[in-house]
Amino acid sequence: MNRLHPLSAVTLALQHGATGFSVPVLLVGLGSSVLDIDTGPLLALVPIGLVAGVGYGIAYYYRFTYEVTASTFDVSSGVFSRRSREIPYRRIQNVDISQGLFQRVVGLAVVSIETAGGGDTEATLRFVSEDEAERLRSDIRRLTAATGTSTADPESDRPVFDDSTPSTAEPTAAERTREDRSRGDVAPTLLFDLETRELLLYAVTSFRWGAAVFPIAILVFLGGADSGSGLVPAFVIDAARPFGGPETLEGAAVGPLLVLAAVTAVQWSVFTYVSSAIYTVANYYGFRLGHAGEDFVYERGLVQRYSGSIPVEKVQSVSVTENPLQRLVGYAGLRVETAGYGPDSGSSNQSAVPLAGTDRVYRFAETLTGVETPEFRSPPRLARRRYFVRYSIVAAVIVAAAIGLARVSTFDRWYLTAVVFVAVPPAAHLKYVNLGYFVGADHLVIRSGFWNRQTTVIPYYRIQTVSTRRSVFQRRLGLASLAVDTASSRTFSWGSPTIYDIDLETAREIHDTGRERLQSALRERARTDDLGLSVDFT
Amino acid sequence: METLHPRIRLIWIARGAIAAVVLAVALVALDQWRVTVPALAIAAAVAVALVLAVGYAVRRYQVWRFELQDDALYLERGVVTFVETAVPFVRVQHVDTQFGPIERVLGLSSVVVYTAGSRNADVRIPGLTPDRARSLQETLRELAVESEGEDAV
């Protein structure tokens, strides 16, 4: 039985105390201002709430225990309703350790343990000491490796704690060395180290939409300082004025308003881009990937440190991602998908190599999965026609909207929007040329996307379901899309790798190939116990 | 290839009818509070919605097929987007039979087959008699256990 680090009692008490304090305060505020009732008696609840919150936090600390047993990781928690959970090691997808700035200063860490399925982390230890976190991770890794071989090796049924080492003697996993290599507990071998140049390039070439909230957050944070005209801050209008923006919002014509919107969008994009670059640097600074036994281990982060391990056998698919900017400079990233719920923006898709030369990344992907160099096949040209029609419809809708706007307002140059039709042919073409698929001996390789081109390598033995989909329009043209689903925590199946708009014949063929090779691969693997992935991929 | 029980059409038509009623209420509300909508237009819109719902339900029933093949559960379904799905038995995590309140009234039930894939890729076979649902669940469970090779996830 282990408890969390004593400091977590303090943070829990503070956290719950703050909640207990603020709820009655809010109620009092609400009661006096909105409902206009005498809230004097309610004020007595404030200290009670505070004490109750602090008490709850401390009780939570004392009632939270975890234990590393021979075959499961056990967590019991809950003050009033108790929950005890046993996680079998062979079900653990990855173990992640993260440390915020404060936690780094006081030497604490958060350990999260993920299993497949479920929309959430299975166990979170909010604050154990750094050493304890490392010890847990390496113990779990060692025990997972041990349970993996236990069917073949009855020896490993012996008590596993006979060789547990005091964590003070061996502070980090990097310094650990063990003779028992088969147990998976060996010092990590470095596979990839993100150089400063690559980090900066990654920051400059990647665009995270999530960063769009930063400018808003900053505005809200600094809000009130200069927002003279209500909802729209004054500087937004000031910035648009030289380009023909409106003097004020009231009674402005449509033309100047559109200018205002455009200028604001540009401003916002620039801020988003800058914050996204900063975010990337902060998150991927010092990225290192290594392997310890049959696990990948990584660490990254400038202010908040993340580190974790991903068992290689849990990797479902591997994909190479490149956006247009990265293709221009000849760089790409490598991501691995596991079935768990990862720390990376809540998806199970984790960066194995954030950014490296394209050739290198493709070589990594090939070595890791053992796929032959893919010779991509393109969908029939009919597909391009389909995209042409699709984008033309979108363009027509935009023009129609402009006409509609011209009808109800003073805006009369609607015909200018017809310029969007110019973008239709290149858009259709770019969409088409970035599609590709390759049916390999042991893998299916699927490529799609112009803005975020993903080339996904799916081993046949990882297939969960295969679906051939045909919309009404595709049926008219005799085309079909083939969706290959692998184990993941994605909510929607349309996120799963799909070969778009191929001939129905071809789609059915690949559908059957996938099914057959899944079966043969399963038989093969049952015989040879081969991982199918090579750990030492760089 | 097995088809669904014909009574499933009633459920789907009923669902469509409910949607049509919701549409009618929305249109009437629009008429009351915002702009005047001619009563004839409302009636026409609701009638069209009803016809579409019935047509959709009938077509959906005609298209729905499933089959237990050697290695996988195979399904065909979909009116607008026609989908052929294969769920290999090895990949079946667990199988549920479900009886909704309306389904129970009509003496029908569904079988839901879960895989470790994307969450909404789980397969539901509606419109089965309770006996067929149970036997299908049983068969699938046996096939899943039988074909259990190694650990998928």
Please provide a written account of the structure.
The complex is a heterodimer of chains A (538) and B (153). Chain A has 14 helices and 19 strands. With 538 residues, chain A is of the alpha+beta class. Chain A folds into 5 domains: 63 residues; 101 residues, no CATH class; 85 residues, no CATH class; 186 residues, no CATH class; 50 residues. Chain A has a 7-stranded antiparallel sheet. In chain A, strands 13-12-11-16-15-14 form a 6-stranded antiparallel sheet. Chain A has a 3-stranded antiparallel sheet with strand order 1-2-3. In chain A, a hairpin with a 5-residue loop joins strand 2 and strand 3. In chain A, helix 11 runs antiparallel to helix 12. Chain A is globular. In chain B, the strands form 2 sheets. In chain B, strands 1-2-3 form a 3-stranded antiparallel sheet. A 3-stranded antiparallel sheet of chain B has the order 4-5-6, with helices on one face. Strand 17 of chain A pairs antiparallel with strand 3 of chain B.
Concise synopsis of the structure shown:
Chain A is α+β, with helices and mostly antiparallel strands and 538 residues long. Chain A contains 14 helices and 19 strands.
Q: Quote the average pLDDT of chain B.
A: 89
Q: Name the overall outline of chain A.
A: globular
Number of alpha- plus pi-helical segments of chain A: 14
Instruction: Going across the biggest sheet of chain A, name each strand in turn.
Output: 6-5-4-10-9-8-7
CATH architecture heading of the largest domain in chain B? Roll
Structural class of chain B: alpha+beta
Main beta-sheet strand count, sense and barrel state of chain B: 3 strands, antiparallel
Count up the domains of chain A. 5
Uncertain regions spanning at least 5 consecutive residues of chain B? none
Oligomer: heterodimer
Output the helix-strand order of chain B. HHEEEEHEEH
Shape designation of chain B? elongated
Percent strand of chain A: 15-25%
Tally of distinct domains of chain B = 2
Q: What is the count of DSSP helices of chain B, taking H or I runs of 4+ residues?
A: 4
Strand-residue fraction of chain B?
15-25%
What is the class of the largest domain in chain B in the CATH system? Mainly Beta
Structural classification of chain A: alpha+beta
CATH topology of the largest domain in chain B: PH-domain like
**Order of adjacent strands in the largest pleated sheet of chain B:** 1-2-3
